[in-house]
């Protein structure tokens, strides 16, 4: 079984690197049974955390702000619940599902609101519609010699979606890596209970110094629909990148100093391998030679057959309780990725794309990637590796920002668990290990409250919500340590339900200020839902869904054995390093 795993993993990485980048893009996240009526909404992974189906009465596709005003007005007049939904909808939480009984809500797609409105080269500002995709935004700015200062690593998101969830890159320099920190203006369409100029909706125009912009910058979609965003840009620059591999002994003591000295750097930790990859990532003048590009291997098109085979292999390793197979699989994958520059290119146009470090290129080509979105409309041949239409990878994602002052202690606790069970975290290394990015303290009401390290942990998810995972307890304990022992803040666009338990208290008075703006912009709560009410603790809503097996999907924290899978010998037990945790542990396993 070990050799089968090695061959499959090598094939995946090899074909990712050397196959064509043409690919069938993800399918629609809104599907309807009758024109634009009787519809359902999902996300780019094909499932929300609670596995429920989000049904809506209809979907609207406005092409400009005037049409958007009309759409919101009609729904507002009927007191209809509504939500904006983006073209690929990559948020894991249920942020795009309207409230309302019996699927009576309205989905408002921004996919056609994707244009550049204006560019002010003197002020270095660009105004765009909220549905513009990140890659289009970056390319449009580059045409004027301008750069978006920071961005998420995945280019498939829309600007409205990524700022609404606080998405970011990695930096503690200046205003930091969160895209919303560079928003200097925003226009939203919000509902009204009485007509305004003939509409039951109005346009809110927020300038740089408007205090309400502090709510709108990270809005979770509950204030209304963002129609336009104005960003502060900067002159184009280049980045010089080298991935440096070190042993992980004592690396937690370097985290703060590395962030303070490396402008765009991040850290990837492979805990089972005992190795850390520091991305030494510096700005250099635009005149510096180099035409490098970031085409991250995991975001490239891959053969559909290989994707399905890789998923089948991991499912088999889970079913046979074979963590050793995952360790062999992950080690070969990581080593191959490192040898090939993890998708960085400095020899474009040649068979051998990566020839060594450093890789130097324009910010516009280095800051984000996602070539699997390029389409040749042939799903049977290639796809993005998580495309739910082909039996692709399916995973949970725990993403928590921990105050820099507490990070070294958190890493030390994770190491204790790793040392007890050296194979427990091999599965995370199949999904880029622990990806660590730096994020600055924010003035936005729902932005980060302190300078933090954002830690992404991605791991296997069963298609059967009642099926436990290998080392379920270890990953649950890490999740609960990050959230509760170290008071971590969740990424708004990621995480299982447990990630948002008690989150209102972590933001303190900032949430009160946000809720005040929310009630003023949308006093009838037409853009709210049970999900967002649960986040803010409103109207008696609770994000915890307590039922048999609920802890397996992170819908609850177990307090009874039935919240786990006692029929498969998984019982609710205290944590090993963090005793206050309650986790699903297999009897006589760990």
Rg (CA only): 23 Å
Q: How many strands, what sense, and barrel or not for the largest sheet?
A: 8 strands, antiparallel
| Overall outline | globular
Helical content stands at 25-40%
Biggest sheet, spatial arrangement of strands: 19-13-15-14-22-23-21-24
Uncertain segments of ≥5 residues (pLDDT<50)? 1-21
General description of the model:
The chain has 590 residues and is α+β, with helices and mostly antiparallel strands. The strands form 7 sheets. Strands 19-13-15-14-22-23-21-24 form an 8-stranded antiparallel beta sheet. Strand 14 (267-270) and strand 15 form a beta hairpin. Helix 1 (2-18) packs antiparallel against helix 7 (304-319). The longest helix is centred in the first third of the chain and has 17 residues, at 2-18. 54% of the residues are buried.
Quick take:
The chain has 590 residues and is of the alpha+beta class. 26% of the residues lie in helices and 24% in strands.
List the helices and strands and how they pair.
Elements: H1 2-18, E1 30-34, E2 37-41, E3 54-60, H2 65-77, E4 82-85, E5 106-109, E6 116-120, E7 125-129, H3 134-142, E8 146-147, H4 159-164, E9 183-196, E10 199-206, H5 213-216, E11 225-232, E12 234-235, E13 238-247, H6 255-261, E14 267-270, E15 275-284, E16 293-294, E17 302-303, H7 304-319, H8 323-339, E18 344-345, E19 359-362, H9 363-366, E20 382-383, E21 395-403, H10 404-420, H11 426-429, E22 434-439, E23 452-460, H12 472-485, E24 489-490, H13 503-507, H14 509-521, H15 530-536, E25 570-574, E26 582-586
Parallel strand pairs: 3-5, 4-5
Antiparallel strand pairs: 1-2, 2-3, 6-7, 7-11, 8-12, 9-10, 9-11, 13-15, 13-19, 14-15, 14-22, 16-18, 17-20, 21-23, 21-24, 22-23, 25-26
